[in-house]
Amino acid sequence: MSMPYTTPQCVTGKPCGRTCIAHEKECRRGFDSPSYQKAARRLRATTERLLGKGSRRDYATGSARLPNVKRSHLTDTQQRIIDAVILWTNGFVPAVRDPGLFDPDEVEEIEGIVFGATRKHPEQREVYNVTPTEESYKDARKVMTALSMAPAGKDVPDIHRGVRLKQSVIDSLEPGTEFDTGTINSFSAAERESNRFALATESEEDRAKIPVVFHIDWADVKRGTNIKGISTHYREEEFVTGGRARVLSKAYERINHDGGVFHVWNVHLEQV
Question: How far apart, in whole angstroms, are the C-alpha atoms of residue 4 and residue 256?
């Protein structure tokens, strides 16, 4: 299984004049290049510094709140990161992966995160929303790709991802199998959230598929960034990552979720 890639020049905003979809090996070398890794590591470190300012859940919106940060004090890089994460977590996700899918006739303001508002100064509460454009989605793709492909930092949690897959795909996930997870994927540090996504059956297509939860232990996470503290869905405890992974084990097991008992495929991975 594989996903299309763009060259690092495209991802970082330095146009190379082309994208490569059919040349995965060439693009993979690009993501692994020292210059791209350095730029991605810088973005990840900037994101971690934002999180270090004491993020918490805003109970009015459910989004992240940064009580010790004023929006007017954000650097340009911090602003880019926050805009990108808002579009990724509360915007039109397919347009982050492919900005050409953005429809200018259906533009709506997107609810974002909250700044300020300590207990002593609730009047400082500032809700920051984003009105998207095709250019902002293009920049979101560059930023989110870099955060996903950046070398993982020190404080990496165990991460999980709940999906629903066809039986034929599940059958192919035998121990030792390597596959590509793509350049931007949402995992969660909260296994309960991953179980919720795996058990969701909002459409007829979903009901025809089987719940699967992917698990990666912290020691096997080689890429990615924790974005929980600037996400519009704080409780999801999101961690974005991407790249190749190898199946370590697979088991059909019973889980308890929201007072019910369900069966899911638990697939343990390591990133390669």
Answer: 36
